[in-house]
Sequence to fold (330 residues):
Amino acid sequence: MQRKTFTRTLLAACALAAALPLAAQAQATKLTLGHGAAVGNPRHEAAVKFAEVVKAKSAGRIEVQVAPSGQLGDDAAMVTAVRTGALDITANSQGALSVAVPEYAAYGMPFMFSTPAQAFKVLDGPLGQELAQKSADKGMVVLGYWDNGIRHMTNSKRPISKVEDMKGLKMRTPPDAVLVDIMQALGAEAQQIKFAELYVALQQGVVDGQENPLVNIHASKLYEVQKHLALTSHMFQMTPFLMSKRTWDRLSDMDKKAVQEAATEATALQRKLSADADAKLLDDLKAKGVQVTTVDKAVFAKATSAVDDKWVASPIGAYVKKVIAAARAL
Fold:
């Protein structure tokens, strides 16, 4: 009788021990994805898509909570959080990432790409793989390179059609050293302001203008406080989609596969939404009373040529030269 009781107890203990790792695993797969874009932005739509797909592909083992609009801090703060493992995933910004991995700045050289599709031909090849390895060395796993668009300028003072129109304008930039260089080369004053604070800063006249892709200008309703839009196309920026290496290393091979497949779907969606948005958004901005001007890009590019020279001479110059060469070969 005692032997039967002991056997039942032993079997129950074994069953409990077998169940514990599953419970621990279930807790470990509740992940948080933070980004700074507004709800409705392709960045947010793709983040939600990623959460849905990874939950389905992992049979419910991975649940991702999406926190938009800088709820978890600005891009720089989220980069730090991902590197330390305090945040699991982020759809971030090229400028903020370049502080940790300087090579990201190479993709923002002025007037290098005329369309995001050109940039992705480079990023989806060996140079993008090299960038992913450099990111992994800094504690971040690249899940995909998303589109943050070709950037244009808005301001509340005057139309911009020539370089001289930039002189003296106080222009907001994100924490991106290349953008600061571009603004200064064009004669504007660069001032860094968090994106979440940008609308109010423009409304109150803290700065005269800003620059962003059309989708960000529209989603954050910057047209309400900026009536002049210049289609400068001065810079491409990506949105690196990243997972903390600490989080990645905790996942099983099966769950890593689910994450990668979901990221591939989300990346395709984000790029498509961004590509589809521009023509429609430009018409809508015009309908809202925004005055649109174009610029001679060759003249603007010449005015900013010293920016390329500066970065080619920098510590990441070898990588910058490879990216410039690849872009020119397209």
The CA atoms of residues 106 and 320 lie 5 Å apart. The longest helix spans residues 253-287. Strands lie at 30-35, 63-67, 89-91, 140-155, 170-173, 189-192, 209-212, 228-244, 291-294. The chain has one domain: 26-328.
